[in-house]
Amino acid sequence: MQDSGQAGDVELIQRIARGDRQAFSVLVRRHGPALRRFARALTGEVAADDVLQEAMLDAYRGAAGFRADGSVRGWLFTLARHRAFHHRAAEKRREVEAVPLLELGLAAGFGRDPERLAERAEEREAVRLALSRLSPEEREVLVLRDVEGLSGEEAAEVLGLEVPAMKSRLHRARLRLMTALRETSRETSRESGGDDGG
Question: Which fold has domain 101-191?
Answer without folding.
Answer: Arc Repressor Mutant, subunit A (1.10.10)
